[in-house]
Amino acid sequence: MTDLDTYRDRARSWLEERAAGLRPDPGLAEARAFMAELYDAGYSGITWPAEYGGQGLSAAEERAFQQASRDVVLPVGVFGIGLGMCGPTLLSIGTEEQKRRYVRPLLRGEEIWCQMFSEPGAGSDVASLQTRAVLDGDTWVINGQKVWTSVARQADFGLLIARTDAEVPKHQGITMFVVDMHDPGVTVRPLRDMTGESHFNEIFFDDVRVAPDQVVGEVNGGWSAAVTTLLHERVSIGMGAARTERPASFAALKTAAAARGLLADPAVRDRLIDLYLQERAFDLLNARMSQEVKAGIMPGARGSVSKLLLADLTLDSADAASEILGPDAVAFSDEGKIARALSWGPGMALGGGTNEIMKNIIGDRVLGLPREPQVDRAVPFKDLKVGTQAKEAGA
Amino acid sequence: MRLIPTDEQKDLATTVRSFLASNAPMAKVRETAESPTSYDRPLWERLSGELGLPGLLIPEEHGGSGAGHADLAAALEELGAALTPSPLLASIFATNALIASNDDEAAKDLLPGIAAGTTIATFSTPVPGDPTIHAAADKLTGTLPRVLNGADADLILCTAIASDDSPPSLYAIEGTAGTRTPLTTLDLTRPQARVELDNVPARRIGPEDASEAIARALALCSVALAAEQLGGLRRCLDVIVEYAKLRVQFGRFVGSFQGVKHKLADMHCTLEQAESIVRYAAWAADEDPAELPVAAALAQSYLGRAYFQVAKDHLLLHGGIGFTWEHDAHLYYKRAKTDELLLGAPRHHRARLAEHLGLLA
């Protein structure tokens, strides 16, 4: 038995003891308590440097823990942005003081983090953001609006990117900050999305004052850090998909069709076969990519393939379900799973980058195709058209 | 379930790829395709002798190397990518039928010649709707409508029935028996022939009721074909991506236009999924007989359409040059269409899939 096997077994028995019966989505207090225990047991920040509170172990231990926890759903969703995006960003470009101050409480669930990049006028083109950070003495003063922010209501801190120089081209005048979400100038408003629920928030900044030591990376050098953060996001959206619930899976729809006596209809069988092919192709690709990761081949930009295919599958499977269930799919007295899936589908195709953006990434970074000529690369930000433009009079 | 190739499989693929690049480049492929001979005999002798490709699946005791279907898939991808005209796929089909039939005598008699490449073997894979072959006292009568490499084959395996309500058996026709009429084929690199049988002596292979063996053989043929299709699909995408990086119109590389780029991205997604499915099907062929029927039907249902779509788009994205005889795009387009139909139309594979998934219950 290797050390790794021992590590895996110990993790497995810890999880069996502690994680059994946990709800995947408990209240905040319970989630925080679990996170603290997970940290104290040595399973939070496994590969993160020990001097900042991590365990300082290798990717092999990380994988061993993932294998041990494969069948357990840990209630750590609220910490996901911090663990997956903010923490790694701080570790790679944060100052020594920032790492010492923020990383350990992040890993222990004492402080929750969110990420504030998108704006109403800067969606696919995040670098066109208009939130301003202006120096008043040596203090930055932030004004503007962010949108599509997960866990902003629970968050203690957030990574924010803002415009610090409008005289230079858009990518060159952006700076990343740590923002205290409890600042009186920060207003978080839940954004009601098309599912009728609020998975995201919009955030307003009114004269929020940020000390100079809260700049992450270089002043006007915030864009490259943001790009790395976003790549992490795409990989995790696509590849985590195997575990998400699928109300409109082939298996579920086959059962539903059989119960309604619809399998005699060749049109129904044909639709089911289409769905089966799409679902299996997606699942097998994800299985292959995780085997590659285990063998040391990193997906990189190929994560965008998964993300794009998952978006299609989510939308198409809900659509297939509606064909098979007919009007009952949209007029119901039960929990309305399919109607929910129909409402959720577009979110999957938009969040973390639209399908069109994914195809650009696949074309540019996976296939190495020439980029589109960029008309805004060399233009000072203040001279750019940004966001949705009003029609000009007489046009 | 293993979905990534082993180091040995990667080595085999590299060997076959560089062999074909040196010995069967496109100019050679065209020369063979446009000549009256259906394949290049010296090339075939080297594919058999030096590379041992027809013997890959054949046990060592019968002169082969006893490799698996995933190994074979690695080699077939390369032949599919290079469009190599050779009787290899036909031999693999015949080998699958012989091995699936579990007939030790027949294996001992017939497999060594196939492994050595000295016997050109083929298997007339039955497609729903094809005419029936009747067997009486080990003599066959009927028409095999399209047999891969049928004009040159020294050994034809086919299915036949004794009477309308009897189960199918597997038969071997040795030598040059039967009336062979070469067919005009869309894909010039892959010849087919009609074979008419009038009381032709044949040897029954395996049990009288060979339904199970035939089903397994067809599933294995589906997997082998899918591997070839994957290789062709990948080559089409590679070629058009390279062209999109070189061709300039409107002052820009055409690959920089989203109308082109997004199509190529979609084709890449298809490739990634097609490869995953082929690896899975080849794994099932080696390791999981219970999962093989679904995996094989999945592979053909997906790969047939996928390869044709990608080959079609690769031709179209070339623009006018893609419609010329001198450009290779049409060779892939025609191969993709032929492969899509070789073991039956996609609807046949989808019907089989529906059956295995319990949709017809």
Give a structural overview.
- The complex is a heterodimer of chains A (395) and B (361).
- By secondary structure, chain A is an alpha+beta fold.
- Chain A has 3 domains: 3-112, Acyl-CoA dehydrogenase/oxidase, N-terminal domain (Butyryl-Coa Dehydrogenase, subunit A, domain 1); 114-220, Butyryl-CoA Dehydrogenase, subunit A, domain 2 (Beta Barrel); 244-353, no CATH class.
- Chain A contains 11 helices and 8 strands.
- In chain A, the strands form 2 sheets. Chain A has a 4-stranded mixed beta sheet. In chain A, strands 2-3-7-6 form a 4-stranded antiparallel beta sheet, with no helix packed on it.
- Mean pLDDT of chain A is 91; it is low at 237-243.
- Chain B folds into 3 domains: 7-88 and 104-111, Acyl-CoA dehydrogenase/oxidase, N-terminal domain (Butyryl-Coa Dehydrogenase, subunit A, domain 1); 121-205, Beta Barrel (Butyryl-CoA Dehydrogenase, subunit A, domain 2), CATH 2.40.110; 211-356, Butyryl-CoA Dehydrogenase, subunit A, domain 3, CATH 1.20.140.10.
- Helix content of chain B is 53%, strand content 14%.
- Chain B has helices spanning 7-23, 26-34, 41-49, 69-82, 88-100, 104-116, 211-246, 258-287, 292-317, 329-342, 346-356; strands spanning 121-123, 134-136, 139-148, 155-160, 169-174, 179-182, 192-201, 203-205, 248-249, 252-253.
- In chain B, the strands form 3 sheets. Chain B has a 4-stranded mixed beta sheet, with helices on one face.
- In chain B, helix 5 runs antiparallel to helix 6, helix 7 runs parallel beside helix 9 (292-317) and helix 7 (211-246) packs antiparallel against helix 10.
- Chain B is globular.
- The two termini of chain B are 28 Å apart.
- The A-B interface holds A 254, 258, 263, 269-270, 272-273, 276-277, 280-282, 284-285, 287-288, 291-292, 295, 297, 302, 305, 308-309, 356, 358-360, 362-364, 366-373 and B 1-4, 241, 244-245, 252-253, 255-258, 261-262, 264-266, 268-269, 272-277, 279-280, 298, 301-302, 350, 353-354, 357-361.
